[in-house]
Every structure is written in C-alpha cells, then in structure tokens.
C-alpha cells in the first residue's frame, strides 16, 4: 500500500497567538508520525512569515495563497444552491485543484477553516477549538455582520462532513453531537499542549532579565497574554485592580497581545480607574520572549469568557507560574488554579489577594505540575488514536483509488 499523502494546513497567522501555537504543536507531532509510519505530509500556509518560522523547526512548507476565484467559490458556497451547479459540472476550486496536482490524498485543517468549503473531491480532517459563538453569542466578534451565521454553516458542515474532527476537550464533543448531530466516533480528543516556545524555554536569569528590561518591567506582576477582544474580559480585570487599589493594594499588571478592536476601550478604562502607573501594555511580543514573561509574573490571570480550555494555563504550569482562572472552566484546571467568577470584579480581586496566603504559590505550582502531566498523558492517548484513525483512512482511500 502506498504512503498516505496528508496536506497539513497552517492558516492562522503568528499574531493570532494560541491559534497559531497549537497548530504548530500538531504539525510537529505529525512530522514525527509521518517519519515513523512511512507516510508523507505536505505543509501549506498562506503566510510567508509562517514558512520562515517553520524552517526554524526544520519543516519545509509551501506557500498556498487563496485567490479571488477561491473567495468567489466561498461566497457562492454560502449560497447553498451553488452546490447544484458544482455537482452538475464537477467544478473544482483553484485551491482544491492545486492540492490534487500535488498528489494529496486527504487535507488536515489545523484550525476551524472555511477552506473546507472549497473541497468537493478531497476528504478532510477539521480541528474545532470551541463553540463559543453558541456559548456566548452576546459578544460582537461572534455575532455581528453575519459572523454567527457564517460559523453555523462552517461548524455544521465541518462536524458532519469531515472524516475526522479533532477537538481539545470531551465537553466539546458532547456539544458538537448535540448541536450538529456529529457522529461521536469521528471525534478525536487531543488536549492543548504548551507552546513549543514556552515548553522548551530554559530559565536563564540574565536572558529573562533582558526581556523584562526590553519592556521596562519589574518581576512579580500579574500577566495576561491575550488579544484585545471584548470576550477576553480585560475590563473585569481592570475593575478588580481598581477595587484592590481602593483597599490600598496596588497590583501591577502586564498585558500583551494584538489589538482586535478592544484596545481603545481598555485604554479608556485604565485612565478612568486611575491605573496608568500599574498597567503595562507591551503589545504583540515575540514567541521566544513568552517564557521569560511568564517566569517574571507572580501569576497568570485569565478572565476570558471563551473556553472550555485555553492555552495560557498550560504554559504557566510549564514554567511554574501560578494560575488564576474562571470557575466556569474548572474542568481544565482542577485544583491547579485559584478560581473566580468572571462576571464579578470583586471575586477576581479576592482571588488575587488569596494568592498571597501562606503556601498557596507552592501548592499551585505542585498542582500545576501534576495537571500538566495529566494532560500530557491525555494528549499521548489522543495522538495514538489519531494515528490509528489515519491508518484506517489510508486503507479506505487506497480502496477508493483502485
């Protein structure tokens, strides 16, 4: 039987943050899987910067941009009757034709890509990180200008048409089965892993100090790495700091991430609360600097409304930094975080104060190590299942090509 030729699509740009780092982890595992199993992967990205980054990991990739015809196909795909035209004349998108020319057998989207709508001949594997447009439709980034409807089309077709659906939490499998009638046996759960940049970073006092110096930071700040979206809930965190300030507690905070439309409101809140001397916004930071920024923090504090899982807690645990996290996502952290109500600034303020209790930091660090090992074991189980499913698909695709 000839090797399976798997296309691996890395569509997220570096400034997406976790949406880039987790697909990178998946790719590095797939590279090793292909080498050990005798199969082949071909990596594609529409971003030239991604190709340069992948060379650092000894991964060759191909630039595959999406042209105007591909975008026209996508638009028409959202208009369902176009399917009848494509079926009648067997019309393929330029995107799919390029993959077929490269001898691809199956396409693996490492994020919830709309490009799967361009595939009529090639089967695909889809990754679904969350269902937050259903969980919290009140946020504009998942609701306005047809975004909710677009996601419904994407999730509905992806979860039912995909040969495999990769998710990061068992709760998400339940959601997809309930909401879209996904076949449960097609889902493979592979939990998040710490970013390769953070997990492989080694604490070096001089190097860490240089990073903090670059951003004019002193150690022992609260750290929140997140893009500036409304759902990231920076405002509740700022309100909690203002509440602490009223009690005479001035807690420093460092924010990093790219602006997705929420930065202006955050700047105004900082000024309104009188927190300008306590809050540092360092913008988007290089991946290589993340380890030092985590290590310099007294705690990761993450009030995001979107889950059920997130990458920063794993990265914090990887370098021994305590975690403060929403109670709604306790299934991810267990006892390895101080929990709070993400709708209540006072609850978050109390969580920050409790970090100073005797033995709390040591307990959280130890619990974080245990939790990280738990997820590492779960990830290994998930990847073994993914490998098994890929071999099953290889057999079936070989039959269909005879």
UniProtKB/TrEMBL annotation:
Pfam families: Glycos_transf_1. SUPFAM superfamilies: UDP-Glycosyltransferase/glycogen phosphorylase (SSF53756). This is Glycosyl transferase family 1 domain-containing protein. Residues 218-368 form the Glycosyl transferase family domain. InterPro entries: Glyco_trans_1 (IPR001296). It comes from Bradyrhizobium iriomotense.
